[in-house]
Amino acid sequence: MQDLSCLGKCSLTVILPVISAMGVECSVLPTAVLSTHTGFPNPHVADLSAQIGPILDHWSTLGVEFSGILTGYQANPAQAGIARNLIERFGGENCLTICDPAMADHGKLYSGLNEEMVDAMLALCRKADLSLPNITEGAMLAGIPYRACADESYCAEIAQALHTKGIRSVLLTGMERAPGQTGFFFSDGHSTCAYSTARLPRNCHGTGDLFAAVVMGARMRGLDVPKAGALAAEFVKRCIARTGDDSRYGVAFEPELKWLAEQL
Ligand code: PXL
């Protein structure tokens, strides 16, 4: 369940091809159509919230079941409520739910979003088996001050605060264990693990969505969360290395899909 941003690869236009390339069937629930993602000035937004109820009602009549649900960017807090409803209706016992609270980065909410979104995303993430915030989102959801330099102990502090707020497992992206490195911190409330790799000095659009898609695909293919996260981190790094100068257009993931499929 994601928006469809027509131009500037992110959300559904990267999630669908990546999950398919991983050999996993992917159905889509588009929440909004945007002319571009919100990193471009003045995108045209067609909110599809009113269509989602009838789509879910039709699916109910078919008796379909899903083995996984992945939610990402929501155009407004009401849509985060609709995402919760999707999980309530279709996220049964055998369904793995992953929520990427895609709403902020580099210490700031995405353009067009406000504080209400943080509460709505928190309520959504509480429903998920696994949440995938970046450091900014993690700090906002946890209600603790954002720090640009997120070392392992800061990540552990965020994860602990998120568990206290009712979030089950959390994989925080953008941990900086040492200068020049990037990685993730995972906590399921009982045990933790951290992963770190060399950081390419670029900030590209849509990498969080790519990361989430690989984690979901890998979990569906039977990898545990730390292995799924490590595969996602490596894939995103390879895509960034291939990307040209204008990072608003997203990363060049297409040439790396073959490599990704070969890892499974
Ligand atoms: O990549 C996250 C994302 C998804 N969808 C839309 C966005 C963004 C980030 O800016 O604007 C519409």
The residue fraction in helices comes out at 40-55%
Decide which structural class fits the backbone: alpha/beta
Roughly what fraction of the amino acids lie in strands?
15-25%
Alpha-carbon Rg, integer? 17 Å
Description:
Helix 1 (12-21) runs parallel beside helix 7. This protein has nine helices and eleven strands. The chain is of the alpha/beta class and 264 residues long. Helix content is 40%, strand content 19%. It has helices at 12-21, 49-62, 77-90, 116-125, 135-142, 152-164, 207-220, 225-241, 257-262; strands at residues 2-7, 30-36, 45-47, 68-71, 96-99, 104-105, 108-109, 130-131, 169-175, 181-187, 192-198. The model has no long low-confidence stretch (mean pLDDT 96). The strands form three sheets. Strands 4-5-8-9-10-11 form a six-stranded mixed β-sheet, sandwiched between helices. It binds 3-hydroxy-5-(hydroxymethyl)-2-methylisonicotinaldehyde.
Task: Characterize this entry briefly.
By secondary structure, the protein is of the alpha/beta class. Helix content is 40%, strand content 19%.
Spell out the blueprint of helices and strands.
Elements: E1 2-7, H1 12-21, E2 30-36, E3 45-47, H2 49-62, E4 68-71, H3 77-90, E5 96-99, E6 104-105, E7 108-109, H4 116-125, E8 130-131, H5 135-142, H6 152-164, E9 169-175, E10 181-187, E11 192-198, H7 207-220, H8 225-241, H9 257-262
Parallel strand pairs: 1-2, 4-5, 5-8, 8-9
Antiparallel strand pairs: 2-3, 6-7, 9-10, 10-11
Helix pairs in contact: 1-7, 2-3, 3-4, 5-6, 7-8
Residues 3, 5, 10-11, 34, 37-39, 73, 102, 110, 206, 208-209 line the site of 3-hydroxy-5-(hydroxymethyl)-2-methylisonicotinaldehyde.
